[in-house]
Specification:
Layout (H helix, E strand, L loop, with lengths): L1 E9 L3 E10 L2 E6 L12 E4 L4 E4 L1 E6 L19 H5 L3 E6 L10 H13 L3 E6 L13 H7 L3 E9 L9 H18 L4 E6 L7 H9 L7 E4 L5 H12 L4 E4 L12 H11 L6 E4 L5 E5 L5 E6 L4 H11 L4 H4 L5 H6 L16 E4 L5 E6 L2 E5 L2 E2 L9
Parallel strand pairs: 1-4, 1-5, 6-7, 7-8, 8-9, 9-10, 10-11, 12-13
Antiparallel strand pairs: 1-2, 2-3, 5-16, 14-15, 16-17, 17-18, 18-19
Length: about 375
Amino acid sequence: MLLLRNATVFAPESRGQMDLLVGGEQILWMGASIGALPPVLDVTEIDLGGRVVIPGLVDGHAHLTGGGGEAGPNTRVPAPPLSQYTLAGVTTTIGVLGTDDVTRSTAELVVTARGLVAEGLSAWCHTGGYHVPPVTLTGSVRGDIVHIDRVIGVGELALSDHRSSQPTLDDLLKVAAEAHVGGIMTGKAGVVHLHMGDGVRGLDLVRQALDASEIPARVFNPTHVNRKRALFEEAVALARRGCVVDITSFDVSSEEDAWSAADALERFWASGAPATNVTVSSDGGGCLPVFDADGRVVEMGVGHAGSLLETVRELVARGHGLDRILPAFTSNVAALLRLSAKGSLRIGADADLVVLDAEYRVRDVMARGVWHIQDGMTERRGTFETA
């Protein structure tokens, strides 16, 4: 067992200075002071000296197998190794396929998630990719959710994007119904994670789906909603109807018709939409292409998990408290994805936590009760990572 003394805890709500007792993969106890423990328990104690401790970040959108491929086979992004997540304070990640759901597959995504679990992270994934019908393992979205341990939903299914299958309302409703029923049968998330492009149709298909069906709003989970300012306003309106919308922490220049993740989150809070209905993800490992009018890639970047804490630090610098900022990176994501042991620091939760330094940068990271980062140094690496 391990006892962390004198931690300033944001769980993600502010809890003040506390001691935390960790045993196995769980938080066994939290309180103002546990006092002296019997030597027979053989508890290792660490005095954090008042440092801030937050839940491990839950990244709801990452390309575990790598993304890209839009500009030829040489532009396929490699799979990020374990330490790229942990150095960024991410202890739980959700994998997706993007444009390339032909040479990259759900099978590869599932086994990659399992590999990260074996290395000490927590990882799940969605079945399918940009296109309909979704590429599945069992022959159906519902079957994948029911029968495959790591699969919790479907996506990222592309809407309003020249790379999509140009799905109809019926296409979207059929996929959403499969996901929803799969979720009901298993207690999994059962969401449709929707890649939003910059097309003029925006979120119109989602509005039609809500108007035309009995499928709960929480099933429809659009991401990249800050890529266009008009799209973001549509997303805020959907959040008022019960959808959880996902902001991407990519770089945005002042000339772009887009909002940075920090700007978007501030605007969401100011809108009065439910604060629980917004999340922030990294698109880590994914290609961030810029296309010309003919659909050719003219520029390409790569998403990285570190953009999450960069956004947190920017919001702190703007005067926001961690208790307001953190839910979009932790508890909101866990609630949407029905990961009940993730996203918060509480008795019985998984021992996923991040110790921050005075500049709100990663100092230590614990995932499932094991230190991966200590004093800013990587203690545990992926199987094929070199020091």
